[in-house]
Amino acid sequence: MKIIWLGHSGFRIEIGDQVLLVDPWFTGNPMFPEDKRAEAIAGATHLLVSHGHGDHSGDALTLAGELNIPLVGIYDLMSWWEAAHGVTTIGFNKGGTVALGNVNVTMVNAVHSSSVPSDGAPIYAGAESGFMISGEGHTIYFTGDTDVMADMKIFNDLHSPDIGILCAGGHFTMDMARAGYAAKTFFDFKTIIPCHYRTFPLLEQNADALKAAVPSVDVIEPEVMSAIEI
């Protein structure tokens, strides 16, 4: 398995027989080098979108058309995109599981918001979500954008994720200390990869507080387009 950070909350996950692009954001992402775009999207099989905000979904429609692959996410947003833009989608909802080849993806709750711009104003884009991604004997918990929530205990009871990709930049999501609290209180991760940080000065710039909270866990601060192999 390879987990490759695309900056901010975007990831390329090579798992089982799939290459998943999760919340890829290229256009306007100050962390992502434009000359790496072709490498980042090569061979992708599906696009997973956790919610409608532009720093997660801004390139989704373009990539779906360019690569001719399905968008996967909350039913409301997927149905709208399919009807309005003619893209292929797989819409499901929280608690549901879809099989993408040999990889299972379960949608789980998140606590955030979800909208897309329309004529200068935000409009509802279906609920925010996270994903449990299972394959190759591992389960990855991709939080999407969220705060700490008691639901996380249920997620661990049902899915036992060993890898956590945790939003941890603060201001818009939980920060490193809160992500550390969540990891310590609700999960038994072997590996944690923080995200949604370093992109802008407003966000946290390092994972020191997260590392301090879970000293026995391998907390890997990712580098853009550098593969983490598990």
Describe the structure.
The chain is of the alpha/beta class and 230 residues long. It has one domain: Ribonuclease Z/Hydroxyacylglutathione hydrolase-like (Metallo-beta-lactamase, Chain A, 4-Layer Sandwich). It is 23% helix and 31% strand. It contains 7 helices and 16 strands. Strands 6-5-4-3-2-1-16 form a 7-stranded mixed beta sheet, with helices on one face. A 7-stranded mixed beta sheet has the order 7-8-11-12-13-14-15, covered by helices on one side. Strand 5, helix 4 and strand 6 form a beta-alpha-beta unit. The chain is globular and about 45 Å long. The protein starts with a strand and ends with a strand. The relative contact order is 0.16. The mean pLDDT is 97.
How would you describe this structure in keywords?
7-stranded mixed beta sheet; alpha/beta; Metallo-beta-lactamase, Chain A; single chain; 23% helix; globular; 230 residues; 7 helices
